[in-house]
């Protein structure tokens, strides 16, 4: 990992000071369209996740200009909306690009034929806009270039995982083929690149604690779908940036995330919540989890497509590994929906339901931001593995049982 030169570091730190500079100008040029007209919006994500527009300008003949002031460099979204009617389809009409805005003259150049759009089209070529004038964005670009081999490799593996493992297995209704070998091979290859990406990212954060780019990378790690760190590791990673960001709203927001993820960090004991059993009884979750054995908690719902797609795989796992315990916990609000889905999917292992639904307080104790969520507990009921779905679960079980 290359460190900043002293001159670049000084320039970056100066740009990070609250109120630095006279303000920003953002001049945009859009090509690839015929006399494009519409609106350009600067948007910022608030701590609650809501996107708020902070500035806007009219696009005339493919050009627009925005002026303003920011307290410090921060990630913004430039949303380009070329629709004449807000009810019109966003396809080919609405585009969005993220970049670091700071108080300096900035230019934005994008081709409408390749500019990333809010509508995903796998057949449409994508090319990032050219953004100049933001030292923070340049710094971010250098970081992205450093991790590009790993991130590109992971993107390829992710696509192959869908094409060679997930999709064929989902379409194989009669279970004529076993896709375990190809899935596990991809998972192992992914683990190598994931480790490299993580090591580079952690080094970047540790070496650049004052940079908003590094700070945002730490937030992203802590906001991932699954928590792959112990409580001790989380505290250490927070300490890297704490001094540089003391007293700021950013550190307060980070601490809010930390408070949510530490209870489900690796090595922590699971929360013993109230759940409903299929026969209508309310029991403690601990009464369903055998002591001294590895157990997978699988949070799902009848209305969740990916959850239902995963269940046939769990059926096969349950049949193959008789000693491995699975506890499926539904977040269905309606008991009838839960009961119906269990019968349809032939879920013969231990079942339970959180009656409060996915927005309930009990769900929050597991920091569940989406389903399916699968995690393995060790023999003492402590979180041992996360992201144990599909071939990731197969790889773990092969490691555990040697078959």
Write structural notes for this entry.
This protein has three domains: 20-131, Immunoglobulin-like (Sandwich); 138-264, no CATH class; 274-401, Glutaredoxin (3-Layer(aba) Sandwich). It has ten helices and 15 strands. The protein has helices at 6-15, 135-171, 180-207, 212-222, 231-242, 249-261, 305-320, 335-345, 361-364, 390-401, and strands at 24-31, 38-45, 51-59, 63-68, 74-81, 94-101, 105-111, 130-132, 274-276, 282-284, 295-300, 325-330, 350-353, 373-377, 383-386. Helix 8 links the parallel strand 12 and strand 13 (350-353). Helix 3 (180-207) runs antiparallel to helix 4, helix 3 (180-207) packs across helix 10 and helix 5 (231-242) packs antiparallel against helix 6. The chain is globular, with a radius of gyration of 24 Å.
Topology:
Elements: H1 6-15, E1 24-31, E2 38-45, E3 51-59, E4 63-68, E5 74-81, E6 94-101, E7 105-111, E8 130-132, H2 135-171, H3 180-207, H4 212-222, H5 231-242, H6 249-261, E9 274-276, E10 282-284, E11 295-300, H7 305-320, E12 325-330, H8 335-345, E13 350-353, H9 361-364, E14 373-377, E15 383-386, H10 390-401
Parallel strand pairs: 1-7, 11-12, 12-13
Antiparallel strand pairs: 1-4, 2-3, 2-5, 5-6, 7-8, 9-10, 11-14, 14-15
Helix pairs in contact: 2-3, 3-4, 3-10, 5-6
């Amino acid at each position: 990992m290359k460190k900043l030169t002293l001159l670049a570091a000084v320039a970056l730190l100066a740009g990070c000071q609250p109120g630095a500079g006279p303000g920003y100008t953002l001049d945009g040029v859009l090509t690839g369209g015929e006399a494009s007209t519409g609106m350009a919006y600067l948007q910022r994500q608030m701590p609650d996740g809501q996107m708020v527009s902070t500035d806007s300008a009219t696009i005339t003949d493919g050009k627009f200009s925005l002026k303003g002031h920011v307290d410090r460099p921060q990630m913004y979204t430039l949303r380009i909306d070329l629709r004449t009617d807000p009810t019109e389809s966003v396809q080919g009409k609405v585009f969005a690009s993220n970049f670091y805005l700071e108080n300096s003259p900035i230019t934005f150049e994008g081709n409408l034929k390749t500019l990333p759009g809010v509508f995903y089209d796998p057949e449409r070529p994508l090319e990032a806009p050219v953004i100049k004038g933001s030292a923070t964005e340049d710094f971010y670009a250098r970081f992205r270039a450093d991790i590009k081999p790993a991130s590109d490799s992971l993107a390829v593996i992710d696509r192959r995982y869908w094409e060679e493992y997930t999709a064929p297995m989902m379409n194989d209704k009669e279970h004529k083929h076993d896709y375990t070998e190809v899935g596990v091979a991809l998972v192992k290859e992914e683990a190598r690149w994931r480790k490299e990406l993580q090591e580079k990212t952690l080094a970047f954060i540790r070496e650049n604690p004052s940079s908003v780019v590094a700070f945002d990378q730490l937030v992203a790690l802590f906001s991932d779908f699954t928590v792959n760190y112990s409580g001790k590791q989380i505290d250490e990673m927070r300490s890297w940036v704490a001094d540089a960001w003391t007293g700021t709203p950013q550190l307060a927001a980070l601490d809010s995330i930390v408070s949510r993820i530490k209870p489900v960090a690796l090595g922590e004991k699971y929360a013993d919540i109230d759940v409903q059993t299929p026969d209508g009884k309310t029991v403690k979750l601990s009464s369903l989890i055998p002591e001294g054995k590895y157990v997978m908690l699988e949070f799902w719902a009848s209305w969740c497509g990916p959850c239902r797609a995963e269940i046939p795989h769990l059926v096969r796992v349950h049949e193959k590994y008789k000693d491995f315990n699975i506890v499926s916990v539904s977040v269905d609000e309606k008991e009838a929906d839960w009961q119906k889905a269990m019968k349809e999917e032939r879920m013969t292992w231990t079942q339970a339901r959180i009656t409060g639904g996915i927005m309930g307080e009990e769900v929050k104790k597991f920091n569940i931001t989406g389903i399916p969520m699968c995690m393995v507990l060790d023999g003492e009921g402590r979180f041992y593995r996360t992201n144990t779905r599909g071939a990731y679960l197969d790889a773990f079980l092969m490691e555990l049982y040697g078959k």
